[in-house]
Structure formats: structure tokens, C-alpha cells
Design goal:
The protein is α+β, with helices and mostly antiparallel strands and 291 residues long. It has twelve helices and eleven strands. The protein has three domains: 51 residues, no CATH class; 148 residues, no CATH class; 58 residues, no CATH class. The strands form four sheets. A four-stranded mixed beta sheet has the order 8-9-10-11. Strand 6 and strand 7 form a beta hairpin. Helix 7 packs across helix 9, helix 7 packs across helix 10 and helix 8 runs antiparallel to helix 9. It is elongated. The relative contact order is 0.08.
């Protein structure tokens, strides 16, 4: 067997879809226009992320996966739901993997793609507020959250909206164009969406949203405290300990009681653990109690 020598058309194709780009993809019909037949596009060199699409590698991120679908995306089709949230870097309750369906939204009276790896929903046009980010047509942040309402609890929405109003850098993958938003701006977007269960859940979540939350775990901590019937804490409360300003994730200043979220590294990192113990002792000397 001899090695295959690329034809001029195939060489043009290599330049058209360079191997260095993991999410470079093409429809088979477009490949034919570049002189490549079905046999060539069926070679083991390519993966099949979606029906009728060939790519050079399996996607490793939601952004790569969305770009792999881009050749199939039609006019008046947008990435929405959980997919759009991931593209914005808005926290979602589940970890992404390549088997997660790519979520699309289309006008309610338009064709909805039905194929492996894709899930499309219809929306009335007044609910579709979209733009283009990183070359991808997708719903705006609040509409993305609302369109994902069936996959989100009120607590999940609180975490998502907290991410919109914060300027914290503790949100990995947060898109630079995401915000921050104000609660009033979010409320206007929800009102424009109209009624229904998504808007009802979003308004319930918005009542819990607070500016200044530092990370998704802190949103869960605060929501859990209030949901348990305890008084709502102040977030990121500053106190002075040993002449230094320190911040508590949550606090009840009138009771001189505070609490902090500690990730697993606080338990497994010996240096961090000793630092935490020393910090707690210093805070207790100021007549504060840490939960």
C-alpha cells in the first residue's frame, strides 16, 4: 500500500481547515465544494461531532464544541440554554463533557434541528435577544439563563445572577463581555421576557441576589443559610484583626459571628490548614466567633 498523495484540491482543503485548530469543522457538502469526496471525509483523520460535520479532533471545551456546530447553524438559530451560559462563563450546576447536548433556540414557528448531540427549543421572537460573541451567535446572558430554566433550580439561578452582578475574578471562564450587570438591569430583562415559569423562578432568584459575592460557593453558602430559616448574613464583611483588614465571606456583625467557605484545599493543604487555624485564633481574640 502506498501513502496517499494529496491532490491540489486536498491541499487547498488543508489550508482551509488547518490541523492546528482543534475546533476547525466543515459540513461534508462544503468539503465537496473544495474537491473532497465522501471517501476522503470518512477517513479516520476526522471525527464526527454532528451529523454531516467533520472535525479534526474531539472538542475539549464548550467553546470548541459550539464552533464545531457552527457550519450547520442557520440564520435565526442561536446557541441558548445551558450552552449559552457556558459560553458566557456563567456558572451552571453540572460539569461539562462532550456528550452534553448542544442547546439551540429558534423562533417558535421555525424549523428545529433534530439530530444527535443537538437539542433545539422554540421561543417567541420577543424573547430572543441575541448577539455574537467569539464569532458565535448566542442569547444574551439573562435570556440564556431564562432559556435554561428547566435545567436550573432557584438556587442555581441565584448563583448565575450573582455571577452577572459581581466584579470578582473568582469566576473561572467568565467572559470579559459578561458585565457586571445591575439587579435593575436583570429585572428589566426578566420583565421583557414576559410571564411563565422561567420568569417566575428568575424573579424568585433575583430577590436573593447580592452585589459583592466573591465566588459561586459563596452564593450556595448564603442561599443555604437563608433557605434554612436563618437571618440573612452580610457578605464580604470587613473586620480589623491585628491591625489588618480581613474579610469574612458571611457575617452577622450585630452578633459578632462570621462564616467562611473553605474549599477542599483548606483541608488537604497543610500550610493552608495551619494558616486557617492561626487566622481563626486571631479573629477569636477580637471577640468574633467563626462558624
Amino acid at each position: 500500500m502506498t501513502d496517499h498523495t494529496p491532490s491540489p484540491a486536498e491541499s487547498d482543503y488543508e489550508a482551509w481547515m488547518p490541523e492546528s485548530v482543534i475546533d476547525a469543522s466543515a459540513r461534508i457538502s462544503d468539503a465537496r465544494d473544495h474537491g473532497l469526496g465522501q471517501a476522503r471525509m470518512s477517513s479516520s483523520k476526522f471525527v464526527r461531532p454532528f451529523h454531516g460535520v467533520r472535525s479534526l479532533a474531539v472538542a475539549e471545551t464548550p467553546l470548541q464544541r459550539a464552533r464545531q456546530y457552527l457550519p450547520k447553524l442557520r440564520r435565526e438559530q442561536w446557541f441558548g440554554g445551558i450552552t449559552a451560559m457556558r459560553l458566557w462563563g456563567i456558572p451552571v450546576p453540572t460539569r461539562w463533557d462532550v456528550t452534553e447536548p448542544t442547546r439551540l433556540v429558534v423562533p417558535h414557528d421555525a424549523y428545529r434541528p433534530r439530530s444527535r448531540g443537538v437539542r433545539a427549543s422554540g421561543l417567541v421572537k420577543r424573547r430572543i435577544a441575541a448577539g455574537v460573541v467569539d464569532g458565535l451567535p448566542l442569547l444574551r446572558p439573562v435570556q440564556a439563563i431564562l432559556s435554561a430554566a428547566d435545567d436550573l433550580s432557584v438556587e442555581d439561578m441565584v448563583v448565575a445572577f450573582d455571577a452577572l452582578v459581581t466584579d470578582s475574578e473568582m469566576y473561572p471562564g467568565r467572559h470579559p463581555e459578561l458585565g457586571p450587570w445591575s439587579s435593575e438591569e436583570i429585572a428589566l430583562e426578566i420583565a421583557a421576557w414576559g410571564g411563565g415559569s422561567a420568569a417566575k423562578r428568575a424573579n424568585a432568584a433575583l430577590a436573593f441576589v447580592r452585589v459583592g459575592v466573591d465566588s459561586p460557593p459563596e452564593s450556595h453558602l448564603r442561599f443555604g443559610i437563608v433557605d434554612a430559616g436563618l437571618p440573612e448574613p452580610v457578605i464580604q464583611h470587613e473586620i480589623v484583626v491585628d491591625g489588618k483588614r480581613r474579610r469574612l465571606d458571611v457575617a452577622w456583625p450585630e452578633l459578632r459571628v462570621g462564616g467562611e467557605y473553605e474549599g477542599d484545599h483548606h483541608r488537604t493543604d497543610a500550610g493552608q490548614w495551619h494558616e486557617d487555624v492561626g487566622r481563626e485564633r486571631s479573629i477569636s481574640l477580637e471577640d468574633w466567633q467563626l462558624l
